[in-house]
Amino acid sequence: MPDRKNIAVIGLGSMGFGMAASLLRAGHAVSGCDVAAGARDRLRDSGGQAFDTPADTARDAEIAVIVVLNAAQTETVLFGSAGVASVLRPGSVIISCATIPPAQARAFAARAAEQGLHYLDAPISGGSVKSEAGKLTIMASGTPDAFKAARPALDAMAETVFELGDEAGIGSSFKIVNQLLAGVHIAAACEAITFAKSLGLDISRVFEVITRSAGNSWMFENRVPHILEGDYSPRSAVSIFTKDLGLVSEIGLSGKFPLPIASAALQLFVMTEAAGMGKDDDASVARLLAKIAGLELPGK
């Protein structure tokens, strides 16, 4: 293909692997790195190359896509002793996809610029299914040159790319707002379906009715089927929202902005993680509420 790029993907979890697969499908040369050997093997089986360190992964890359958990991991894979910034050629672009504080995104962009690298603040939304289909939503901000350098990868990974500003940090701010709503909606969906169970209702019928009524939300429609199936294998883990709503809370506190609803939702995720379900699907909030109320939800 005329615009075939060498692209490194650091982090091959449920989102990162789908993004790597989408890049391969678009004809790019993809190398990847993950701490899990199984994830590296899966990429090799799909036609990509896999390496043990971020630096080895990005040695020939023009674009580095960073899909790790948080700001600390992002910093390590970018600027650590085996980080990608040490091997990327000037003019290459970093696409940073983790949910991180806006101030950290600005700091990473400044450090990248000192090394002649472009940095696109590009948090993602859509879940693993849309990731594998190349239909993510990306909330991006960065310089025009960063967008231009990143475009071949963005086109392969996303259905919608919002260009939100010329400075890093703006994309992360948008993602923080999104995560506030996502976390609250998941918690509300879990509370509602468990409350319905306490009323003696057929919760499958409740799902059918609510998804055709004004009380519906994308999260209700997406997460309640996990509860109905009794399947809590993690599409998105509880621990993701203890982290992300924790960030929301910290940013609100630093700006003296009250966040009462987000704070209540955060506590539900914290309690669910404390009950041993941190690595399970985030719909496990319903299991916690059911346990407290002495209710029996569907289960395998």
Explained architecture:
Helix 1 runs parallel beside helix 6, helix 8 runs parallel beside helix 13 and helix 11 runs antiparallel to helix 12. The strands form 2 sheets. Strands 3-2-1-4-5-6 form a 6-stranded parallel β-sheet, with helices on both faces. The termini are far apart. Helix 1 links the parallel strand 1 and strand 2. The chain is built from 13 helices and 9 strands. By secondary structure, it is of the alpha/beta class. The relative contact order is 0.10.
List the helices and strands and how they pair.
Blueprint (H helix, E strand, L loop, with lengths): L5 E5 L3 H12 L3 E5 L3 H9 L3 E3 L2 H5 L4 E4 L4 H9 L13 E4 L5 H13 L3 E4 L2 E2 L1 H7 L2 E5 L3 H14 E6 L6 H29 L4 H8 L7 H12 L8 H17 L5 H18 L7 H9 L7
Parallel strand pairs: 1-2, 1-4, 2-3, 4-5, 5-6, 8-9
Antiparallel strand pairs: 7-8
Task: Find the structural class using helix and strand composition.
Answer: alpha/beta
Major sheet strand order: 3-2-1-4-5-6
Question: What's the CATH architecture name of the largest domain?
Answer: 3-Layer(aba) Sandwich
DSSP strand count:
9
Count the DSSP helices.
13
Q: What is the CATH top level name of the largest domain?
A: Alpha Beta
**Rg, alpha carbons:** 20 Å
CATH fold group of the largest domain: Rossmann fold
The H-level CATH homologous superfamily of the largest domain, spelled out, is NAD(P)-binding Rossmann-like Domain
Percent helix, as a range, is 40-55%
